[in-house]
Every structure is written in C-alpha cells, then in structure tokens.
Amino acid sequence: MRVHVCRLLVRTEEQMASITTCLEMHPRDAKWQRLPSVDVCQGSWADLSSVFASPWRHGWLARASKLQRRLAPSLFNSPIDQIYRAAATASYKMSSKPDEKVYHDNGRFTRPDSTFRNFVSKDANSQFPAEAGRYALYISPGCPWAHRTLIVRLLKGLESIIDVYQVHMTMGPDGWYFSGEGGSLPEDPLHGFKTLKQLYLKADPAYTGRYTVPVLWDKTADVLVNNESSEIIRMMYTEFDHLLPEPLREANRPGGGLYPARLRGDVDALNDWVYHTVNNGVYKAGFARTQASYDEHVGALFASLDRLEARLAAHGEPFLLGAHLTEADVRLYTTLARFDVAYHTVFMCNLKSVRHDYPRLHAWLRRLYWDRDEGGALRGAFHRTTAPYIGRYGHGYAHSRWKIVFGEAVPLVVPAGPAVLMEAL
Ligand SMILES: N[C@@H](CCC(=O)N[C@@H](CS)C(=O)NCC(=O)O)C(=O)O
C-alpha cells in the first residue's frame, strides 16, 4: 500500500499560499501510526493551524522538500478546491524511528550511515583498480564531508588523476543539483543529469537513501564506488601512490603520511570522539528540534573543543598528533573552518568562538588556512579548498537549517557576520 502525506503551507489567512508537499512513504515498520490528516487537510484555517501545532509537523517538514515535486507535481499551481480534493484523499503516517531519509528521532538529529562502501585498490586486478582518469568526485564545496576529499586530493597531488564535479552550493527540492552557477557544472558531465538523485538512481534504481556528497564514481564501469568521505580519503592516501611522483607517496611524507601505521590507534581514537561531538556534534546542535537535544549536544561540543585545546597546549606541537599533519587534522579542519562563520551564528554553537576563546586551535586553524604555498608540504590544500567558498558557508548553513528545521515555512534570513571570515596569522 502506498501512503500519501500532505502538508499545507499557509502564509497569510487571506491567501492560501501553496501545497508544498505531498510525499509518499512505504509502510515497512509496524510502529508507524495512522493519523487523521484527512480532516485537517479538508478543514478550515483553524484546522490548518492545528497542523502546525501538531507534534508530528517536523517529520512532515523534514521529508517534504526533497520529495515534493516528484510526488505531487499535479498539486502545483492547482486551484484551491482541487488542492482540497487531492488533500482529502490523502492520509499520512509517521514513524517513531527514522528511516534512511529521516533526520530526526524525537527531536534529535541523526545522520544515517552511508550506503555505497566499495574500495578502489592499487591492485590492478581488483574490481576498482586505481587508474589515472578513471574516477570522479561529485562534491559541493560547502559540505564539510566533501571538503575532506577535496583537501586530500590536493595534499596527495591527485588533481590530474581524480576529477572533481561540483554541484550547486545549496540544495533544491530534490537535493543537490547542477546549476551552472558559482562553480557548479551546468549538468553532470558523464550522463547529462541535472540532479545528484538521478546519479544515485542510475547507480541503484531501488535506492531509497539520501543523495549525499561526496560521491566517488567509477567512469569506466559507470558505477558508484563509495559515498562515505572517511573511506574515500583513506583510499586516496595509499591506493594511488604508484601513479604519483616519489615525494607525494605516503612512505616519503614527513612522519610517514596522513595515516601512518604507528599512529593509527591514536588517529582512530581521536577521530571517534571528534566525529560524534564536533564534526557531527555541530549538526546535532544546529538541527536539534528540542531544547533538551540542543542543550545536550552544544555542551558536548564545547567540552570536546576544550579537550582539543588542552591537547595542543599539553604537547606544544603544531598538529593534533604531534609534529606532522595527519588525517585527524584534516577531519577537524573542515569543521573548524566553518565554526565562527556558520556554526557559531547559524547553528547556535555560541558558548565560545574559535577566534576569541581557543588560542591554540585558532593558531592551528590559521596556519592551515593561510598556507598558500602550492609547492610546499601542504600544497596550499587547505587554503585552495576553503578561501573561494568561506564567504558562502553562512548562507549555505542558513539554507540547510531553513530546510531541515523549519521546512521552508518561514522566510530565509542569513546572519551577516562575522565581518572577518578568517583572521590573519
Ligand atoms: N557520512 C557521509 C555524510 C555526507 C553528508 O551527509 N553530506 C551532506 C552534505 S554536508 C549531504 O549530501 N546531504 C544531502 C541530504 O541530506 O539530502 C560522509 O561523510 O560522506
């Protein structure tokens, strides 16, 4: 059975604004409940306002924007009585736990696991052998997870080996799309697609998860290899080394590379709590839909930033794990580069700021950001992947929060500050 959900968005009492959502769900969980949405949709303005008072409204809003045009094209620009008739035939269900596309569980932001988990290998006989020109990364430069892959691609000197295809800085109704604006390609250069969703459905027509960046695509086999940034960057360290000049190979990097055998336990341990409380912690605070969830996660976030600051103070070395850059630095960097300009303002992560309250993290951040030496050890990787976009992070996050938390039901307002995006060294 297919179940439809309708949401009416009312801007003023006089003017029925539009139906912005009619979305379809597949009841695969016995805990889902049937709720009396039909009455609401058929009803008066007073009844409509009860939709927005409903504890279920956030679930509707979260699902709404991605699916609306595909599922309800006929409801767009319809006369109001047709909308009511369509709505009267609709009903909705709400899950007590998130499915692949749902971000919230009782007001707490949850990030579903990535789905495509194959690996490129240096072994020429493997399913995905490392070859120059064979792979492409689909990215949005605003996304911190995609940003990891951009940094490592430059750190490793993989520019001529792995292509980058950029989508628009913000998502549309169907998620990421190609716009031809602000560095985005006009369309997917391999298939002519306009959205990332089309690419995911090409990879797997039965795919029901989120259409996330980054995506590592195999151009030769025309398949999606992997959409998990933490794994994509690890492939990049070692599996392409035979295609690179000697100095760029991991074995020849200072300290033994980005994920050196002697530090693996330490890198993994650090990554683990930094991921949960910092990288993803900012989202748990910024996308929280209850005060309790926000309070909990904002507290954990700043406790971890304090811990990172104390760590740098204790060892006095330039990087998180000592004298040399490791993966742990790359993973923390993409969050801290966005911190004062987006998470502090838009995500309300504002107990402290990096620039005013964390002198060592601030120095660490600025050293990475301001290193523009393309011939140096860092190859200007942090600056080149951040500076062109940092001015748009605030807008990007305001837009995401507007979609995910407010379901686009309020005007989008973007904070102006801070006036200085990254302070000088
Ligand atoms: N675990 C994934 C997370 C990727 C992710 O969540 N990317 C976000 C952008 S920052 C995305 O594409 N979201 C699309 C959506 O939720 O529809 C990774 O690290 O690669």
From TrEMBL:
The keyword Transferase applies. PROSITE patterns: GST_CTER. Pfam families: GST_C_2, GST_N_2. InterPro entries: Glutathione-S-Trfase_C-like (IPR010987), Glutathione-S-Trfase_C_sf (IPR036282), Glutathione_S-Trfase_N (IPR004045), GST_Omega-like_C (IPR047047), GST_Omega/GSH (IPR016639), Thioredoxin-like_sf (IPR036249). SUPFAM superfamilies: GST C-terminal domain-like (SSF47616), Thioredoxin-like (SSF52833). The keyword Transferase applies. Keywords: Transferase. Residues 260-389 form the GST C-terminal domain. This is Glutathione S-transferase omega-like 2. It comes from Tolypocladium paradoxum.
